[in-house]
Amino acid sequence: MRSGQRLGRDFGWLWGAYGTSALGTWLAFGAFPLIAVQVLGSGPAEVAALASVGAAAGAALAVPLGPWVEFRRKRPVLVGTDLVRCAALLTVPVAYALGTLTFLQLLLVSVVTAAADITFRAASGAYLKTLLPPGDLLTANSRLESTTWATTVVGPPLGGAAVGLLGPVVTVAADTAGHLVSALCLRATSGADPRPVRERNGATARAGGLVDGWRYVLRDPALRPLLLNTALFNALVMAAQPLLAVLMLGQLGFAPWQYGLAFAAPSVCGLLGARLARPLTARFGQHRVLSVSGALRAVWPLGLAFVGPGTGGLLLVIGVEAGLILCCAVFNPVQATFRLERTAADRVARTLTAWAVTTRAATALLTAVWGVLGGLWGARTALGLAGVLLLATPLLLPRRAATAAGTPAGDAGGATAGAGATGGPERRG
């Protein structure tokens, strides 16, 4: 827990890969909807499909990849998924230059990158668990969380400026380069990456493995409520974002730069929250920090329903987002660490895949539902409903500290198998 703790050369390469990939992603934030509208002349329904259908189809495509990843070395999987994302994204600027870009291509690219992203996150969590001992996991996750918020602060403004100077697809090209550099960084790691032992019953591994991640989580008394809390919280927060854009940019008349400022400036609080996660956990304990930060993050979004015009309204959004991001930045690395510690080493990839698929599917579903509610009741009323429901999400947090990390109820065999993994023991949500 000491400040400036060194985690080794291999984690440095992994951290560098994560940072370059995250920077590319945030530089290209909103690029596909922008291209759909400005280049292809797409309407609201098509733009919504990019966000919901693409994510949902990508999550469905990632389902069988969880057990496939589980029984393969993780570093080649990480490099491969980076190269898949790089190749898929590269088709967009190439097609744009040739004048052949279509909406169907954007949708297919969004599906492929969503599936590759889920697979990458599952493999990276498993790889991180082999690279570091248990006592270093929170430090590592805190650094990854800090990187997330640092790239969130600088990425969208730089990306917006680049689009204004060089055109709508330049940030997609930057995202492509980010994944390529990430693959090179991961290739440079040399840490332990043992070949997992396959299950004896191959048919079970192929068929039952598709739902094994969910079964594992749902049988665990601590992971089960945490998954439900995470999925519902993330889905409600993300479902409210399009409505807030409609309210601020449409009804309240905020300029686009003001809207961008309202979300970029508070991201600085993410850096503070990520740095606080380790000392708070050292002082108060993992379960208390998880419970308190998880409860506090649910309080803020209701304030978005009361946003008004002018400077006061802008400051209200900045304040709400700052409080929300601060609490999330404390919660996320603690949750990611708890999840890795709680999951047996031979189940990590399947469990993290199930986790990511669940949260993304829930987000896609509620985004569509809240779009309908916003059309029927108005954006402000729908925002208020999301805020009220978020107040109930702390009830889904684990009620007491886990008694034995990595030993889910009813699965002692899995924990025994995981105990022999090399090394020790994700990033956000």
What level of helicity do the residues show?
over 70%
Shape: globular
CATH 4th-level superfamily of the largest domain: MFS general substrate transporter like domains
Name the quaternary structure: single chain
- Classified by CATH, the class of the largest domain is Mainly Alpha
- Low-confidence spans: 200-207, 403-429
Termini Cα gap: 22 Å
Q: Number of helical runs?
A: 18
Major beta sheet summary: none
Calculate the mean pLDDT score and round it. 82
Structural class, by secondary structure, is mainly alpha
Beta-strand percentage range? under 5%
Number of domains: 2
Known CATH architecture of the largest domain: Up-down Bundle
Order of helices and strands: HHHHHHHHHHHHHHHHHH
Number of strands: 0
> Which fold name corresponds to the CATH topology of the largest domain?
Growth Hormone, Chain: A
What would you report as the Rg, rounded to the nearest angstrom?
21 Å
Can you summarize this structure?
The protein is an all-alpha fold and 429 residues long.
Describe this structure in words.
- There is one protein chain.
- This protein is mainly α and 429 residues long.
- It has 2 domains: 8-196, MFS general substrate transporter like domains (Growth Hormone, Chain: A); 211-417, Growth Hormone, Chain: A (Up-down Bundle).
- Helices cover 74% and strands 0% of the residues.
- The chain contains 18 helices and no strands.
- The chain has helices spanning 9-27, 31-38, 44-62, 65-70, 74-98, 103-131, 137-166, 170-187, 202-207, 209-218, 223-251, 256-264, 268-284, 286-296, 310-342, 348-377, 379-390, 412-418.
- Helix 5 (74-98) runs antiparallel to helix 6.
- The longest helix has 33 residues, at 310-342.
- It is globular.
- The chain starts with 8 loop residues before the first helix and ends in an 11-residue tail after the last helix.
- 53% of the residues are buried.
- Mean pLDDT is 82; it is low at 200-207 and 403-429.
